[in-house]
Amino acid sequence: MNDVAAALGRLGELAIEVPSWAYGNSGTRFRVFGTPGTPRTVQEKLADAAKVHELTGLAPTVALHIPWDKVDDYAALKDYAVGLGVGLGTINSNTFQDDEYKFGSLTSSNEAVRRRAIDHHLECIRIMDATGSKDLKIWLADGTNYPGQDDMRGRQDRLAESLQEIYAALGAEQRLVLEYKFFEPAFYHTDVPDWGTSYAQTLALGEKAFVCLDTGHHAPGTNIEFIVMQLLRLGKLGSFDFNSRFYADDDLIVGAADPFQLFRIMHEVIRGGGFGKDSGVALMLDQCHNLEEKIPGQIRSVLNVQEMTARALLIDTAVLDEAQRAGDVLAANGIFNDAFYTDVRPALAGWRESRGLPADPIAAYKASGYQKQINEDRAGGQQAGWGA
């Protein structure tokens, strides 16, 4: 096994984007709970995200959601973020909340509805121009609840036509990433339910279109690392949304359900050339739920990604390759297990301290007084939350 210090040497390449909506109120499908200190504006969301980066050194950019994060002056918002020590990242569209989208957005058979959804994405691209954002991420709630409700093939054709118009508006350095989810909110069929559908649609668009893989958007038992490998092999993995799930819902703290799965995913990311600032693969959290405190939850998630990345970097790939070629099943599996079960936490604490970061970011947050301060400063006003 490689030396731990050598593995940690590559961790400086790790950057994880955090989502603005993670700092607002969130909930189950039944209720959204309010909490003290919740941001009321996008600027306050950025301040919370900047605190995560300050304590971890892992979260240099923040993804925005439109219309939840709409402002009059996006160039000024970009400058504000830079002043806090973070940048603005992915722009996420939203065509899943307005009444007009009840039967679909980019796939709708209603031309006026489809036009509205396309125009929303064109607006998002203009926002990207102002913020310097690289990626437009699209997740669609489009689908049907009953057999015969709509023409599934026709919906795919309309999706392709809609995406083509959006894609054509991208700048030279901008990308479109298409997310998938196997169900929810549609119960019979979802228009982008799996990586194959997203791959087929983005392949038809061109070299600036990629697949976004949300780790919580798969059926139980799915071999997610196989999908990661395949998309890297095909050159179509554009970004991750990291979170965990147990049953149907997702967005839990990263690695909470299956740390070994996260480790295996990061091994394929590293092996397939998806790790590092020049890899073209953006790592982002999509983690925000109703029980945990928001800022510590984001800190815990980015630290979990860091820890499993460090463990994955410990895999001795030369010895593993030799065992695989020899057909030594137990030796090959043992190499994986040895890396996964290595406790890298003390080494990571030292790594952070060597870079002027707190050894224990969560303890440092609790001791900082930041939560007490925002609880006092943010009393009153309309709290931000999922859907607002």
Automatic annotation (TrEMBL):
One of its GO terms (molecular function) is isomerase activity. The keyword Cytoplasm applies. Keywords: Cytoplasm, Isomerase, Manganese, Metal-binding, Rhamnose metabolism. SUPFAM superfamilies: Xylose isomerase-like. Gene3D superfamilies: Divalent-metal-dependent TIM barrel enzymes. It comes from the Bacteria. This is L-rhamnose isomerase. It comes from Arthrobacter liuii. The gene is rhaI.
